[in-house]
Specification:
Shape: globular
Structural class: mainly alpha
Distance between the termini: 34 Å
Strand content: under 5%
Number of helices: 22
Length: 420
């Protein structure tokens, strides 16, 4: 059980006192909750790897099942759609059964998806697999937040939450690196099945600290009923409203960049597929590296809201540049813009989750569930609207300009003074 200094989650995420702000960097890093952080990072990584595994091997699945590879978009959309619902259910389940048990459920859902996809014989089987994955995927952030907040000292809270969010791009990278060689050697079904080994091992490993980490579970708590809508009551607070608008916009812009970068660079700029893939890889790499950096900035130099606003301004700038892409743009210009875009539109999530937890206080788990649902909804809705606008206007310029305007407005909202 955590010591008394960390028992109050509102205390864990409040602004640090001057003496703490002057503490040495090494002392602060040593105060990080290493084992809970590594455990939740591993859960996020493996769950995300499972999410990206079907898109990674989609060409082989399409060939084997004799369907269009474009159907993979429905897999992701269904998983995220069900994830919105599971994110709203998650706070009640986390409080009733504990954060460790909830993370095990996330991993079990990922394992169930892999099994169903590997043994499935048609599109229905893949669809059912996406449904099962979504049942657990939305609970990953609320469960991790519930575990990390009481064990994380105030001066490194944004840093710890941002480190955990590295699991999202890391899961995508691992899927891209590990699965294709297995597909070549043994087929796509065995590639998916191979992911079960680390997932099952982590489920077992998470059982050892469960009694100590799930000390605050509430066995008599009701999960259904009012508990489902409880996270939405947080939106009565203006700071939650502004943060949620930004989270929706930022998530939508980030997923739109990922979804359309390769197509835009090959059809508009004239790059080949390898060169376009390198730009997308640069975006993901910048996103991974800078997430903890922004967490450190939010802990030590400016407020989390100011950090998120600064990132929104960066998103607006890179969106405008991306909308102006034309034939034969220099590679180095495209690379710089990809790196800056990854730094901004891909680097915000850790600070956003930390700010949700900070504003939630004792209701940090509900706040994380709300934030997850909003980000998932933005990731589903905005790319779809973006794609339709590209088709309607016959180009990317107007769509990215509108996205830049939305990012700018979101950033300015975050900078508004807080009224008592």
């Amino acid at each position: 059980m955590p010591d008394s200094a960390h028992d109050d989650p509102r205390r864990s995420v409040s602004a640090s006192e001057p003496t703490e702000a002057q503490a040495g960097t090494w002392h602060l890093l040593r105060s990080m909750p290493v084992w809970p952080l590594l455990a939740t990072l591993a859960v996020q990584t493996l769950a995300t790897m499972a999410m990206f595994s079907v898109p990674t091997v989609a060409p082989e699945i399409a060939l084997d099942l004799n369907v269009s590879g474009a159907l993979v978009g429905y897999f992701v959309a269904l998983a995220y759609g069900i994830g919105i619902v599971s994110a709203l259910f998650a706070p009640g389940l986390v409080r009733k059964y504990g954060g460790v048990r909830a993370t095990q459920a996330v991993l079990a859902a990922a394992a169930g998806m892999l099994v169903l996809a590997a043994v499935g014989r048609g599109v229905a089987g893949i669809g059912l697999a996406a449904f099962v994955l979504g049942l657990g995927y939305g609970a990953a952030a609320p469960a991790s937040t519930h575990l990390l907040v009481p064990q994380t000292p105030r001066p490194v809270f944004n840093l710890v939450m941002s480190f955990r969010q590295i699991g999202v791009p890391l899961g995508g990278v691992l899927a891209a690196l590990i699965l294709p060689p297995i597909v070549v050697a043994a087929g796509w079904r065995w590639a998916l099945a191979a992911e079960l080994v680390p997932i099952l091992l982590l489920i077992i490993a998470m059982e050892f600290p469960r009694k100590r980490w799930d000390y605050d579970r509430e066995p008599d708590r009701r999960v259904l009923g009012k508990g489902l809508i409880q996270p939405f009551t947080l939106l009565a607070e203006p700071r939650f409203q502004r943060l949620s608008i930004a989270a929706f916009v930022y998530s939508g812009i980030s997923l739109s960049v990922i979804a359309f970068t390769t197509v835009q660079l090959t059809t508009v700029v004239g790059l080949n597929l390898v060169e376009a893939g390198q730009m997308l890889a640069a975006y993901q790499l910048a996103s991974s590296i800078t997430r903890p950096i922004w967490g450190w900035v939010a802990d030590r130099y400016i407020t989390p809201a100011q950090t998120l606003a600064m990132l929104g301004l960066g998103m607006a700038a890179t969106s405008l540049v991306t909308g102006m892409y034309g034939p034969h743009w220099p590679i180095w210009v495209l690379m710089i813009n990809a790196l800056v875009a990854g730094t901004t539109s891909g680097g915000y999530t850790g600070v956003a989750y930390a700010e949700y937890a900070a504003l939630g206080g004792v209701r940090r788990t509900e706040a994380a569930g709300l934030g997850t649902a909003i980000m998932f909804f933005g990731g589903m809705a905005v790319p779809a609207v973006f794609g339709m606008s590209v088709a309607a206007w016959g180009g990317y310029g107007t769509s990215y300009t509108i996205g830049a305007a939305c990012a700018l407005v979101s950033a300015l909202l975050l900078l508004l003074p807080n009224r008592r």
